[in-house]
Amino acid sequence: MYEKQLKVVTTNNVNSPEPITGVAQLRLPKLQNHEKVFAHVPKRIYANAHAYHINSISINSDGETYISADDLRINLWNLSISDQSFSTSVTPHAAAPQERSAVR
Question: Model pTM?
Fold first, then answer.
């Protein structure tokens, strides 16, 4: 995460009542500091594993793996390997209720 200062244009030639006829009438836009915002930068990108929006993420107790889930699948990831995951499909009508509850 990093902090960034936003700047806004305070004056320019866009709203000038007179038409601009020469180079001498042109003015550079003036910028003024506005406010600070915080931006997030991903440390790692784990791509191409979910086709839908991710609903939940849970870090496992081993500290090396985590689970991510969308509407159709659950993926098991290793924190040090960003391009591979173990995946299982979630089909609510295919498994018995006691089998579904074992998948967390």
Answer: 0.46
